[in-house]
Amino acid sequence: MLRSLTILLVSVFLVLQPVETAAVLPNSPASLEDDLVRITTNLPFAMRRIALPQIPARSVTVAEFGAIGDGATLNSVSFAKAIEACVRRGGGRVVVPQGIWLTGPIQLKSNIDLHLDRGAVIQFSSRIEEYPLVRTTWEGSPTVRRMSPIYGVQLENVSITGDGVLDGSGDSWRMVKKSKLTESEWKKLLASGGVVDKSGDTWWPSAEAMNGAALVRTLDKRGDAVPVEEYAAAREYLRPVLVSLIECKKVLLDGPTFQNSPAWNIHPLMCEDLVIRNVTALNPWYSQNGDGLDLDSCRRAVVYNCRFDVGDDAICLKSGRDEYGRKRGRPCEEIVISDCVVYHGHGGFTVGSEMSGGVRNVAVRRCTFLGTDLGLRFKTTRGRGGVVEKIWISDIVMKDIPTDAIGFNMYYSGGSPIPEANGPGEPRSSAAVAVDDTTPRVRDVYLKNIICHGAQRAVQIEGLPEMPINGIELDTVQISARTGVVCVDAERIKFTNLSITAASGPVIAVKDSRNVTIEKSTAGTASVFLRVEGEKSQNIKIKATDLARTIKPVEFGNGAKPSAVVRD
Prior knowledge:
- By secondary structure, this protein is mainly beta.
- The chain has a domain at 19-110 and 125-150 and 166-172.
- The protein is built from six helices and 41 strands.
- Strand 8 and strand 9 form a beta hairpin.
- The longest helix has 15 residues, at 2-16.
- The radius of gyration is 26 Å and the shape is globular.
């Protein structure tokens, strides 16, 4: 009898122990390493081999620590216990089985892989009080926000893998603009509760959320000396990003879907050795600040085989805002983005506008943008400072772009790029201002093998009069659009094998720009191929381009001199 009882107790004890497994990553490390070798071969810049996370081959499930996947039981404590159990044993995999697992924020730890089995949904709680206030950054500046649903600071060897879904309950946090909904959708939203601002244009989840912006601006101006607790009065306004990884090393996101984020979706900040593959980022198209992926002051990152359908910029590179970003001095660099598909988004691939620490040594390859508001998007403004340089973009396919297929805009001041949704913005002016450390610079960007069928405008290159955009090359670019190329306050611009089908206006319009070369390009049946404006326009060369069928190959206006153009 005693022997039988002993055997029974030992059996129960073994069942309750964490299960050790032989695998950690969803694919073998060799497979991942082979992918990285393939994707980072023949880069136009030097990039050290990415160090991958090394996580011990043992695992536990959250169910072993009392979690219940019924979508109703709050499992915050169980998730924390499962992670801590792995940490105590030196790390391992925390498995989330099939089910709906309601939880508050999950704080990741070093040497941990959070793995979601197929059919697993981590549903983050909509109760804002579950998320404590933390010091962090938002849109490139230091502030206080709510803790992110997925949160990790100064970690090493960390991953989120598997085929499951992480849902941030963002609809409980976000404001919604009336202009982005149909009448019936707006009525349904009003019936759900919340409040509407005085103008009747924006719905908020609560009056506290609506009124929080003014308080936060006041507190932020006082700097880091403000106690975190003073932000509590605006707690419902301080919506977090879904995934916040700060100063982490050797990070892998592989497989899951990240959706319905309160603010940005995935935000690695000052991380090194980062791989994001096979990931899907989803947000409603109307979601305010609903970015897909924001790589912020990161070094050595590879993003590939990912899908984005979001409410703001899809894949975005940043490096801090204004003086804070310049002082931090951490550029976003050694970045490779490959084989991704973007559906809705304000920009398919975007740099800025918070780029004050610089962005450099970036390769973007074999991506597809379908219906994004703008395709390839570079945005900054006076006051940012910083240098964006050494960007190589190739083999991009775009379709049905409502605004610019390719846009360089140094007058960006916020808002959607859809023209009718823009605010007043910064007025365009030919007057230069003094150049100092607040002056942004965009230079040395190379684009090759770009196809776009359907855009409002083919290309916008618009620099500042005191700091022209410098060194842009477009090689083998084929775009059909309502209007063609606009080039203002730019220098060292080269168009080779350019084929623009524009429904109206000139194929290329150049204003106050110099050292522009147009070579081996196609004029088609456009009535005007090149229009030149501005007294500063000079040394514009047309080489090996057949203009025989063009009614007016070149026309001049607004002070431009005929000597500014040289034809071979």
